[in-house]
Amino acid sequence: MRLALREARTAFEDGEIPVGAVVLDASGQVIGTGHNDRERSADPTGHAEIIAMRAAAASLGGWRLSGCALVVTLEPCTMCAGASVQARLDRVVYGAVDPKAGAVGSLWDVVRDRRLNHRPEVVAEVLADECGALLTEFFAHRRVG
């Protein structure tokens, strides 16, 4: 999660909502990183998770991320939760809960929906206070500025 927080801080410095993500392979090696990039790239899919999963897939040479874990500072939205299922990730680990848009247990629970063909394990609220504090700081600065 510390590596994901580093990515989130990069997003913060770039004026993006500070969310960071990493994908780890089965041995724990980082094979993909990402941070929010929607403003700079003008891409609605420019979420940290999507960017990290794309990098991981490129690293592995295929779209299936079986055996891998996604670690992200904020609970994934429906798009990112769905992408986690589609990528066949083994595990989704997140920091801060997102009660407004979270799709890994808060508002929705996409990744554990029994109707889907794959359900990653979920580990929630890892370093949640630290992850949430970065988001709170970002939005406090945004309201002032």
UniProtKB/TrEMBL annotation:
Any single GO BP term: tRNA wobble adenosine to inosine editing
CDD domains: nucleoside_deaminase
Residues that bind Zn(2+): H47, C77, C80
InterPro entries with a match to the protein in the record: CMP_dCMP_dom (IPR002125), Cytidine_deaminase-like (IPR016193), tRNA_aden_deaminase (IPR028883)
PROSITE patterns the record matches: CYT_DCMP_DEAMINASES_2 (PS51747)
Protein family (similarity comment): Belongs to the cytidine and deoxycytidylate deaminase family.
Function: Catalyzes the deamination of adenosine to inosine at the wobble position 34 of tRNA(Arg2).
Protein name: tRNA-specific adenosine deaminase
Underlying gene: tadA
